[in-house]
Design goal:
This protein is an alpha+beta fold and 435 residues long. Helices cover 35% and strands 20% of the residues. 41% of the residues are buried.
C-alpha cells in the first residue's frame, strides 16, 4: 500500500497554527498522555497486538505532516509491524504510570518525520501493568482519546470492534474542501461576530507569570445539575455562565470574551473519527448588575449552541478575510481567555487531598499559556482547573476565583437571586495561598 497525501483538516490546521505561536522549546505542549490499565495476565505481546490493530485501523496514528506549504499537508503512511518496548515501574500505582507518561511527554514528537504517538508497556517485576503512551494533539482530541481507550480494552478482551467503514481524516479534509457553501456561510458568520469580542481578552503578548490551581466540588456539581434541570439547559452552559459572573465580580466588568472549544462531532459521519477536531469558538458574554441570572444562563446556553454549531472553519481563510477587511487583530488563534468543557471525566480525589478542603495549586504552569484558561470536567463532583497570568488575575485572586465560581453556583441554585447584585459571592471554603 502506498502513502496518501491530502490537505489537512480544519482541526489539524488549528493545531498547526497554534503550535506556530509556541517557542521551539515549547513544541511538546502538543503532547497528550494516556495510561491504559492492563488486565492481570496480559502479556507484552498482547498489549502490542491490540495497539498495533488500532494503528492499522486509524490513519491518524500513522500520519506525518508537511507544514512548509501555505496549505499544510497530511501524509498517511502504510502500516508497518512494530514491537513496543517495556519500562519497569518503581511500583504498581497508577500514579507511577502517569509520572512515566508525563516524563515521556516532555520530549517533542517530530510530526514532520515520525508518527504522532509513542508508547511502551509499563511493567512491575516483569509483569505488564499499563500501556503508557503519548499522542500528539494533531492525531487526537479528548473524544478520540476516549474512543481509543475503549477500543484497546475491547481488543484485549477478545471482542470485535464496530463493523463498517472507519472514518479517516483524509476523508474529512476532502469533504470540508468540497462543501464550499457551508465554508462560505461559516466564515461570514465569524466575520460578523468579530467586532463583538473584548480586546482585553485577546492574547496580546501577556508574558507575566502564570499560576495554575484546581478545585473539586461535589456541592458545585449538585448545584449545577439542579440549575440545568430547572432551566432546561446544559450543565456545561451553567458552569460557563457562573464562570463569567465570577469574572464580572472579581474584575469589575460587564463583558468578557471566552474562547469555547468546539468538539465538532455533531455530524454522525465523523463522530468516531480519530483525529483532532477541536477548534476555537469565541463568545462574548455580557450583563449588568440588574441582569437576572436565570436570563443570563439561558442566553449563554443559546449563544454557546450557536457558536459551537459554527465551530468548524478554516483558520487561514478566516484570517485572510479579516486581514482584507482591515481588522487590527485578524489572527483567529490569538485569544487570551479560554473555557474548555472536558466532559464526564472528573475523578474523585483521594481522601485527604488538598482539593477537598481548599485550593490545589500546581507548580510550574506553562508560561506560554493563555492569560485565562479555565477547564471544567464533571463527574460525582465538578473539577475546575485554572491557569491564569499575574496581569490578568493575580495569583491570590486565582484561588479566590475558583471558590467564587463554586459560591455562585450554590447561590444561584439555592437562593434564586433576581439580579447579579443579589448573588452571594462569599467563598464556602478556605482559599489558601499559591505555592
Amino acid at each position: 500500500m502506498s502513502q496518501t497525501t491530502a490537505p489537512v483538516t480544519f482541526g489539524q490546521l488549528s493545531v498547526i497554527r497554534d503550535l506556530e505561536l509556541s517557542a521551539p522549546d515549547e513544541q511538546s505542549d502538543g503532547n497528550l498522555t494516556s495510561v491504559y490499565e492492563l488486565p492481570d495476565g496480559t502479556t507484552s505481546a498482547e498489549a502490542t497486538a491490540a495497539w498495533a490493530a488500532l494503528v492499522e485501523r486509524h490513519e491518524a496514528l500513522r500520519t506525518i505532516y508537511d507544514r512548509r506549504p501555505a496549505q499544510p499537508l497530511q501524509i498517511v503512511r502504510p502500516f508497518e509491524e512494530f514491537q513496543l518496548g517495556t519500562i519497569e515501574l518503581p511500583d504498581e500505582s497508577r500514579g507511577a504510570a502517569e509520572a512515566l507518561a508525563a516524563e515521556m511527554a516532555e520530549r517533542e514528537i517530530l510530526v514532520e518525520s515520525e508518527h504522532s504517538w509513542r508508547a511502551v508497556v509499563a511493567v512491575r517485576a516483569g509483569a505488564p501493568r499499563y500501556l503508557v503512551g503519548v499522542l500528539h494533539h494533531l492525531a487526537v482530541d479528548a473524544a478520540a482519546c476516549v474512543l481509543l481507550e475503549e477500543q484497546f480494552h475491547t481488543l484485549l478482551a477478545g471482542g470485535p470492534l464496530p463493523s463498517g467503514p472507519v472514518p479517516q481524516p483524509v476523508q474529512l479534509a476532502l469533504a470540508q474542501g468540497a462543501e464550499e457553501g457551508q465554508r462560505r456561510r461559516t466564515i461570514e458568520y465569524w466575520l460578523k461576530a468579530w467586532d463583538s469580542f473584548v480586546e482585553e481578552d485577546r492574547q496580546a503578548g501577556d508574558t507575566s507569570h502564570r499560576v495554575k490551581a484546581g478545585l473539586y466540588s461535589t456541592v458545585a456539581m449538585t448545584a449545577a445539575v439542579r440549575l440545568a434541570e430547572r432551566l432546561g439547559i446544559s450543565v456545561q452552559s451553567v458552569v460557563l455562565g457562573a464562570s463569567a459572573i465570577s469574572l464580572f465580580q472579581l474584575k469589575g466588568r460587564g463583558r468578557v470574551t471566552l474562547g469555547l472549544m468546539a468538539g465538532n462531532r455533531h455530524d454522525r459521519r465523523w463522530g468516531s473519527l480519530v483525529s483532532s477536531m477541536n477548534q476555537l469558538a469565541p463568545m462574548t458574554i455580557e450583563a449588568d448588575r440588574v441582569t437576572r441570572p436565570d436570563s443570563l444562563l439561558r442566553a449563554v446556553y443559546l449563544g454557546g449552541l450557536e457558536r459551537l454549531l459554527h465551530g468548524s472553519y478554516s483558520m487561514d481563510e478566516l484570517r485572510e478575510r479579516l486581514t482584507t477587511n482591515g481588522h487590527p487583530n485578524p489572527n483567529p488563534v490569538l485569544f487570551g481567555c479560554y473555557f474548555n468543557f472536558l466532559g464526564e471525566i472528573a475523578e474523585t480525589p483521594e481522601p485527604g487531598a488538598t482539593s477537598l478542603d481548599g485550593i490545589e495549586w500546581t507548580a510550574n504552569a506553562w508560561q506560554g499559556s493563555p492569560s485565562f484558561n479555565l477547564r471544567a470536567a464533571t463527574g460525582e463532583g465538578l473539577h475546575l482547573s485554572l491557569t491564569t497570568s499575574r496581569d490578568y488575575l493575580n495569583p491570590e485572586r486565582t484561588g479566590l476565583y475558583l471558590a467564587t465560581v463554586e459560591a455562585v453556583l450554590v447561590s444561584l441554585a439555592d437562593e434564586s437571586p433576581s439580579s447579579l447584585d443579589e448573588v452571594s459571592y462569599t467563598p464556602l471554603r478556605k482559599v489558601n495561598q499559591p505555592i
